[in-house]
User: Fold Gliding motility-associated C-terminal domain-containing protein from Candidatus Defluviibacterium haderslevense.
Amino acid sequence: MNTIAQNCFDAGFESGTTQGYTTYIGNIDEQGNVVITTEFISPDRHRVMHKNEGFDPIAMTYCQVNKNLPIVPPGGGQYSMRLGNSNVGAEAERIVLSFTVTPNNSFFLLRYALLLDDPDHKPFEQPRFEMRIKDQNGNTFPCGEYFVKAARNIPGFENCGQWRVRPWTTAGFELQSYIGQVINIEILTTDCSLGGHAGYAYLDATCKPLEIKIDGYCKDSTTAKLIVTQGFDRYLWNTGDTTSTIVVQNPKPGTIYSVTVTSSTGCSLTLKDTIPEFEELAIPKFNKMNDTLVCPGTKLWVHPTGIHLNDIYWVEGGYSADSFLIHAKDSITLHFVSSDNFGCNRDILVFNLFVPSDAIMVSPDQVICPGDSVTLSIGVPDALTNLNWTPGNLKSKSIKVSPNVSTQYHVIVNTGKNCDVEKLVNVTVKLAPPVQLNMNLDTTICEGQSININVQGEGIGTIFWPGLNRIGPSLTIQPKVSKSYPIEIVNLSECDTFLYNYNALVHKIPYVNFGSDFCGSQDQLLIVPNIESWNYTWNNFTTDTFLEVRKSGLYTIVISNECGVASDSIFIEYPYEKQLVFFPNIFSPSSSNAVNQYFKPFFYSEFEYFEDYLFEIYDRWGNRVYRSKSPYDKGWDGIGYSNGTYVWRLVFYSKWCKIKRQFQGDVYLY
Assistant:
């Protein structure tokens, strides 16, 4: 198999270039005349496209049936050419392929897809596509031309909005009778002549002979496939089938099958093949290919070799040939398959193209805190030892760095292939402002109340509450006593931790309880709790937390703070207290002195703490002139009685000590 012949001098663009063609640009005038005189390669109007570029955008936007129109034909190579583009401007483009016909390239197979914008102008103004095959004398081959202009409902086209789209189509040309001659294949695309609508085509070609391929005709097989190249306008088998592939049931040796294929140019070719006697075919066997290290972007031809090889299919590329142009952008594992003539036995060749940049691994980007260090390393094959890190001009595979600011480190490895590999590692130093709180860290509450804490400020990252097993800026607490709550705040860089204390001062609600009134036998000391936030006021206006009691009486305290007020009173009685009661020895109700208007006992203690009270007054003859059972009475006013001496008697019991007290004496009334 001859590589140059198979590629028709790069008619299929598998070099990734237009090197097999002569390219021209020109225009179409308003009368529809195409004027092309300039030999020029336009990167956009003669664009070689790779299959990875996917589908045509116009078809994807407007078509239904041909929505996914690939830019490289199915079963083709890696590349095709887009002749023209979707831009407008009355542009015209032409390419010409010229080669000498030999027995090895005596069949030419052209594949094309067309997209014509239909403005519904006059026919001579419409976008168009033209293809001609001419001999060396300029004569057009019989059935060697195909012309089409944009129009409605063109056979073989889909109406996609205003666009007319023809999917990949195949035209085959038998060149056997032209061996030794130079032939020219001319292809033309134009916009509309008024300059407002576009026309363009995708092209691919090969000189591979057209034949019926028998597949799956193996020992004990009950079926076999007969396959012809796809893309012809019509197929007609002697079985009556009209597809490019038929399945034969129980194939019999000696049976002849034929198919007539018709191109878009109207040319028809008839192919014949005979089911052969079954024989064990030689098993294809590839020669081993060693893994290869290449520079990034290298284009190289791969020529798998071996014995009993037929068609060689490149799995990743998706097409068959005997040599393949590989564009090594990245490391890739290549798989090639070759089967015997009937597809019963096959061999697979696997080898790798290593791009050094893929074979060399470097530490991932790092993030550190100020003052920290980090180790950067690079993994390279043992044979590659010539390397250099910058900044630092370090030669080791592993380096330790501690930058003060974010730094990009470069390491260059010399591969010995005139393609040094550069790897980058970014070391980011996390810088962040310190934490600054905008809040009061001291709060006073009354016992039983809650505090809703919301940490606020600048530079705050994660907030931890040690001891509470809580994370976050908000916290609700209900302390029973005054307490400090530690806060750990990590700044935004997560490098520094700042410690604070939130102080909750709990004020107790005032309370006091003296208990029951009682009879005292000695001096007493009244004591209340000494709480810092409390204010104390006794009924004698002292403000201590204690009071010394030395005589009978009612003792009261009021305790207050911002949380509330509490008070209590207690009566303490001393049974043998001196000067318990006082009696005047003279009074004159008629005097102007209002103080002496009544005669009664005057007590040093509260009246309500006496029981069984009885106060009586008698004249000198023993007649009772006044009697009272309540210390609250006004007393004797003496009205109507003669001046003189009167005798009185007082009897009562102390309420708490239960001691009877008696007093007697006289008083002079005048």
Remarks:
- The longest strand covers residues 163-174.
- Confidence is low (pLDDT under 50) at residues 1-7.
